[in-house]
């Protein structure tokens, strides 16, 4: 056992009644507030991470589309073999426009 005495003067309501009422009011207000939902914090934390991962995946998915937004150029339709031109487009991952496909097929300019 310990011979030191405990100081319980802070619990004396007659010593400082204003301070005692403030402490009791603060304790009662803390007891009256509802506890936060246990899953709300976890949901928000996981939700932020999921949105960040989704944004990165969306950017990575659309990056090739944005980089190949330039239309492939057809040089002279008669000087380039159509098979080689289509293979070059496929290797570069480019999507030719309708006009480029018609030009490589030898169709005259239709407007």
Summary, kept brief:
This protein has 111 residues and is an all-alpha fold.
Describe this structure in words.
- It is a single chain.
- The mean pLDDT is 79.
- The protein is mostly helical.
- It has four helices and no strands.
- It has a domain at 70-111.
Mean pLDDT: 79
Rg computed from alpha carbons, rounded to a whole number of angstroms: 38 Å
**SSE-based structural type:** mainly alpha
| Broad shape | rod-shaped
- Beta-strand level of the residues, as a percent range? under 5%
Task: Please describe the biggest sheet, giving its number of strands, its sense, and whether it closes into a barrel.
Answer: none
Instruction: Measure the end-to-end span.
Output: 104 Å
- Percent of residues in helices: 55-70%
Name the descriptors.
mainly alpha; 111 residues; 4 helices
